Amino acid sequence: MIIGVVGKIAAGKTTIARFFEEKGFCRVSCSDPLIDLLTHNVSSYSWIPELPEKVEPTRDRLIEFGKYLKDRYGEDVLIRLAVDKKRDCRNIVIDGVRSEGEINTVKRLGGRVIYVEASPETRFRRLVKRKASKDRTIKSFNDFKTMDDAEERLYRTSELKGMADYVIMNEGTLEELKKKVEGIITEVVG
After folding, report:
1. pLDDT tens digit string along 43-90?
2. Which side of the chain, N or C, has fewer Cβ within a 10 Å radius?
3. What is the 3-state secondary structure (H, E, C) of the chain?
């Protein structure tokens, strides 16, 4: 079983993926292959499209290289790489699915897609709280909105909601989110 998790910045994608991981799924992010290629950490792949110059994987470089790979090797290249990286796993959860082509590939492989959403204010609070290095350029709500709007223009994330098998509103507690996710896990794996 493959589960793809879609949503905007800090909506709860990784948290949902971790709940699946707790239930035995192998967790991989769509950005993992990009990071691996940019840092030349490619031993767990059976194939790689190409090896770029070795650089630090900043958010901007990840976006730029991801766009390049998709243009050159197909919109679903990151899903194919993520699944390849975890090819020995029975169940995989992919965090950070970002396009119609990626969703279609997850579904073509027999998987399901979860769309997670939260308000911009909630997502900004979470982003500040998590203090991820990739977010260090975001200092204010305006910075966040600028990044969020740019990502929406690039990926049209909001439009992907209609393609999802499940939609989760993530405005409550961690425990409430976990309950929603456990309901989906029970449904997809029995």
Report:
1. 999 999 999 999 988 878 888 899 899 999 999 999 999 999 999 999
2. C
3. CEEEEEECCCCCHHHHHHHHHHCCCEEEECHHHHHHHHHCCCCCCCCCCCCCCCCCCCHHHHHHHHHHHHHHHCCCHHHHHHHHHCCCCCCEEEEEECCHHHHHHHHHCCCEEEEEECCHHHHHHHHHHHCCHHHCCCCCHHHHHHHHHHHHHHHCHHHHHHHCCEEEECCCCHHHHHHHHHHHHHHHHC
